[in-house]
Amino acid sequence: MVITNRNISKAIKEVKFMLNKEKRLSLSGSRYKSDPFKLLVSTILSARTKDETTARIVDNLFKTIKSPYDLASINIRTLERLIFASGFYRNKARNLKDMAKVLIIDYDGKVPDTINELVKLPGVGRKTANLIVTSAFHKQGICVDTHVHRIMNRWGYVKTKTPNDTEIALRKKLPKRYWAVINFLLVKFGKTICKPINPRCNECRLNKICQYAVKRH
């Protein structure tokens, strides 16, 4: 058994049910969705960093940094201190400074609203670009991180080797009505139930149609 477009709606409904039972569905995403610049910065800082840590970092950072102009002008050592708790903070500080300069020079200090333009920014990959266009600009996109990549392959919905490959496959296959929500749902599902190690297959309501669970048992 695998999950296909014949039962993907059922799979997503079951994921919502399980997350609601775990009291995870009500948890919202970033508070900065209405501000493309702050959402972009917070998303870059969230890489390899716990959500709670990222929230503390950005709340403190945005007391000082309000715009790309602030980010471009801040001393890099000061920036490193402000984001020290984030993983790979030195690389992130350099990317953030370079990104701010590109935004100012090429985009008049505004965050572009297309994936093709966003991925030109230092430190911005397709996952981040898709998140920005869907969350900040309400355009179509599919944000694929390691959770989405892992779960979609476990389900048998796609057979891909990298998150970028998964994004391409999902753009061809996944109904568009699920594009904007799939990352939100599967990230939470991947952290609580369909974990990278020791997934809770016995408790999962999809274990009769999930390729991974069926093979495992």
Record the SSE blueprint.
Layout: H1 8-21, H2 36-46, H3 51-61, H4 68-73, H5 76-82, H6 89-107, H7 115-118, H8 126-135, H9 146-155, H10 163-173, H11 179-192, H12 211-216
Helix pairs in contact: 1-11, 2-3, 2-8, 9-11
Q: How many DSSP H or I helices?
A: 12
Task: Estimate the helix proportion, in percent.
Answer: 55-70%
Q: Supply the helix-strand structural class.
A: mainly alpha
Query: Which series of helices and strands comes N to C?
Result: HHHHHHHHHHHH
Q: For the record, what CATH class of the largest domain applies? A: Mainly Alpha
Q: Report the portion of residues in β strands.
A: under 5%
Number of strands: 0
Largest sheet: none
Nearest-angstrom radius of gyration?
18 Å
Compute the average pLDDT.
94
CATH architecture of the largest domain: Orthogonal Bundle
Are there runs of 5+ residues with pLDDT below 50, and where?
A: none
Straight-line N-to-C gap = 12 Å
CATH topology-level fold name of the largest domain: Endonuclease III, domain 1
